[in-house]
Design a protein that fits this description.
The strands form two sheets. A seven-stranded mixed β-sheet has the order 3-4-5-6-2-1-7. The chain has a six-stranded mixed β-sheet with strand order 9-10-8-11-12-13, with helices on both faces. It starts with 6 loop residues before the first strand and ends in a 7-residue tail after the last helix. It has 15 helices and 13 strands. It is about 45% helix and about 20% strand. The chain is an alpha/beta fold and about 450 residues long. A hairpin with a 6-residue loop joins strand 1 and strand 2. It has three domains: about 5-130, Probable tRNA modification gtpase trme, domain 1 (Gyrase A, domain 2); about 135-220 and about 395-440, tRNA modification GTPase MnmE domain 2 (Four Helix Bundle (Hemerythrin (Met), subunit A)); about 225-380, Rossmann fold, CATH 3.40.50.
């Protein structure tokens, strides 16, 4: 059901800034703002044209006390983000004036917006479909230019266009099958069966291509989780600092300095890398260090990529071997640190190749090998990625699950046609494909799905 009340929220981040915005959306947005706004030239917001900015003051209607000097933007339906009347009150960017203006808006008839409710209204009013609405959140959270580009393409409807085209093709097959159900005295001709199967197999390949794009595309939406692991004092924190080019982690000669995981983001050719520095893995009787080791192991198990660090200035020890055994089945890059003072370098590298296909020599202290490490991180994680990659990219797990469901139903449908299953069974499989793809764009949805999606948004968007 499309709501008919008016919502309000602060749409800018908390804290101090030059400008802060209180946003209202709904049928009474302009009327409510008019109760609070006083133009220095006596202008009324209700009489103002759409998409105009008006200078004036916000005053408390009860006391006539001036709350803030503002610029007010009026945007009339339907040419707005929500397809409702929208008012944006541009205040000074401190929390006190913003809270006061929001409180006055609520007292004058608005309701506090829920997380993502402005975008939810944009969806409910047909301004965006569901995948485009989700792209708004991806755009807000984008950490690199490539992440932003992918989100913007989805916001512009590139994925939606692809899904709607596939649904249209499936609908044609459904109509064909339903026609034979309505006229049971007719048998599907062999030529017609062949045509349906060929069309379905073409769609199957397109769904398969979308599924494959998720394996790498999701990293640009969520970030690639990379854990730096190794025994104490091999230079894990030094490597983190060298990659970030800042002193993020404490570095000392004392083993066990890092007691907890430290996370930071790094941009590698547009790939957001969520890099995690972990506590050194070793046996310890210190309770804090033991907990740190547990968290290190958990981070290592959950990571998309492991950067295993060994000390190149000394032979491998049992702790190194134990760590390498743990990660040998994961996507792992093994680095020989302290290569500037390394000995028996070639023998060590050959031995490490037993545990990892990527072995690099680096010096976190001098910066040697770091560019090669970054290149290897990118290529080992997004092997087939090209700059400005063409085609539709799936980055959202919800979309992948829906496409996988459609893919499985389509395979079942093709098999049912080939084995002369009853037409009703075939029709059920093809209707299921339409429903699965419809979930992506919001043609088929439930309140539970909507609530889960929009609860991830910030209040004010």
């Amino acid at each position: 059901m499309i709501p008919d009340d008016t919502i309000a929220a602060i749409s800018t981040p908390a804290g101090e800034g030059g400008i802060g915005i209180v946003r209202l959306s709904g049928k009474d947005a302009i009327k409510i703002a008019d109760r609070l706004f006083h133009s220095s030239k006596g202008k009324s917001l209700s009489d103002s044209a759409s998409h105009k900015i008006i200078y004036g003051f916000i005053k408390d209607p009860a006391t006539n006390e001036t709350v803030d000097e503002v610029l007010v933007s009026i945007m009339r339906t339907p040419n707005t983000y929500t397809r409702e009347d929208i008012v944006e009150i541009n205040c000074h960017g401190g929390m006190s004036p913003l809270r006061d203006v929001l409180e006055l808006a609520v007292k004058s008839g608005a309701r506090l917006a829920e997380p993502g409710e402005f975008t939810k209204r944009a969806f409910l009013n047909g301004r965006l479909d569901l995948s485009e609405a989700e792209a708004v959140l991806d755009l807000i959270r984008a950490k690199t230019d490539e992440s932003r580009r992918i989100a913007l393409e989805q916001l512009r409807g590139k994925l939606s266009e692809k899904i709607l085209n596939l649904r249209e093709q499936i609908t044609k097959i459904c109509v064909f099958i339903e026609a034979y159900i309505d006229f049971p005295e007719e048998d599907i001709e062999l030529a017609s069966k062949k045509e349906i199967i060929e069309s379905a197999e073409t769609i199957l390949k397109e769904l398969e291509s979308l599924l494959k794009s998720y394996d790498e595309g999701r990293f640009f939406r969520e970030g690639l989780a990379a854990a730096i692991v190794g025994k104490p004092n091999v230079g894990k924190s030094s490597l983190l600092n060298a990659l970030l080019q800042k002193d993020r982690a404490i570095v000392t000669d004392t083993p066990g300095t890092t007691r907890d995981t430290i996370e930071e983001y790094l941009n590698i050719n547009g790939l957001p890398l969520r890099i995690i520095d972990t506590a050194g893995i070793r046996e310890s009787h210190d309770m804090a260090e033991k907990e740190g080791v547990k968290r290190s192991i958990r981070a290592m198990e959950d990571a998309d990529l492991v950067i295993a660090v060994v000390d190149g200035s000394e032979p491998l020890k049992d702790e190194d071997i134990e760590m390498l055994e743990r990660v040998k089945d994961k996507n792992t890059i093994t680095t020989i640190n302290k290569s500037d003072i390394s000995f028996e370098e070639n023998a060590l590298a050959s031995r490490l190749l037993l545990y990892s296909s990527h072995v690099l020599r680096i010096s976190a202290k001098r910066g040697d090998g770091l560019e090669e490490l970054k290149k290897t991180i990118f290529q080992s994680s997004v092997k087939n990625w090209k700059e400005q990659k063409e085609g539709v990219i799936v980055t959202n797990l919800r979309h992948k699950i829906a496409i996988r469901s459609a893919y499985d139903s389509l395979k079942n449908g093709i098999k049912a046609i080939e084995t002369d299953r009853p037409l009703e069974i075939i029709a059920i499989e093809f209707r299921s494909i339409l429903d699965s793809l419809g979930e992506i764009v919001g043609a088929v949805t439930t309140d539970d799905i909507l609530n889960r999606i929009f609860s991830n948004f910030c209040i004010g968007k």
